[in-house]
């Protein structure tokens, strides 16, 4: 029998290895934190000719390619051509820049048995076992006062092992390979140094960060540290593994893989199509922040882009325009407008900010309710009561839609059916008065 041979990589594997994977590996390696991930996205957008926008500026955009960042950790990039928007619609990809990690606490340095440790907290859905016995480095954003007295912030990355979370030797922990829980407050404190034998004092954390800032940004001069947002990361570089390099192993694949895929798609997209990439921070902890996916970042940007195009069209028309809002459909249009107390012929410019806020919240809540209840938009309490009374589903399903000549649940006036461009729409004229411009 001759020597064993390793088959050549399949064409699709070779293609991925030659083109996509090296760029993905480089992206992940250079993005140990959400701040660095956003920085890497910006670097590639700048190279492709995208124009930076700032939320503090007024926007008067011509057709082109743009991006805007928030908190240095979230970014929205897009192709913009208002003249083709109606025909092309909006194609959007979303991802998040943050990953499960260990974040450094505000007053981190502690001393235990003559060893200096770093206080950390678990961020997101962390698998804690893989953090043991790894060469760990530190990266993130530091805010400071520079030598000229100006407030500033910079990204730092030590790019070398400065910490380790050691496992206890098996001789001292015979149960190590059995079911053992990990206490995140006591079991994963990284070791960073021993105590100096002469002074016996612990590390000056502020000076430690200032020294790193000076090494990376000597132009800042002497600095005074004000605050920091830092996290640990594994020094091992991402790589391809397997005899034919068919597997990719790396930390932070959740969700830098999607950030890179979305960025690659945007850079390759047809400029004539309105395409948008949004990469949010804080997904791992619920997204409810100014730069999270549940926060206002995306809606703020879309509002600035869309207000001038849509603010003088009737809401009845807008809610069937898929370039304004996708997926509502005809029955949700009636339900949203009725529940919001808005007349179908009202325009966004006719409404107050409070009325627009109510309309937006109602759009979200009724859309979600309709999705999880297979189209029921009536209140759960009323549905339960009507079902108990033997009312059939078609009669209790909606608040206004398909309830012509039936009493409004709110004021008891009769629901009226009208037609707009051949599509039926239902309203209560008392609850939905026309707002004068």
Protein described:
- With 437 residues, the protein is of the alpha+beta class.
- 29% of the residues lie in helices and 23% in strands.
- The strands form four sheets. The protein has a six-stranded antiparallel sheet with strand order 8-7-10-5-6-9, with helices on both faces. A five-stranded mixed sheet has the order 1-2-3-13-4, with helices on both faces. It has a two-stranded antiparallel sheet with strand order 11-12.
- Strand 11 (239-241) and strand 12 form a beta hairpin.
- The termini are far apart.
- Residues 1-17 have low confidence and may be disordered.
Give a topology summary.
Blueprint: H1 11-29, H2 34-47, E1 51-53, E2 64-70, E3 74-80, H3 85-88, E4 90-96, E5 101-112, E6 115-123, E7 136-145, E8 151-157, E9 191-194, H4 205-216, E10 224-234, E11 239-241, E12 247-249, H5 253-268, E13 274-280, H6 297-310, H7 315-318, H8 329-340, H9 353-372, H10 380-388, H11 393-396, E14 416-420, E15 423-427
Parallel strand pairs: 1-2, 4-13
Antiparallel strand pairs: 2-3, 3-13, 5-6, 5-10, 6-9, 7-8, 7-10, 11-12, 14-15
Helix pairs in contact: 8-9
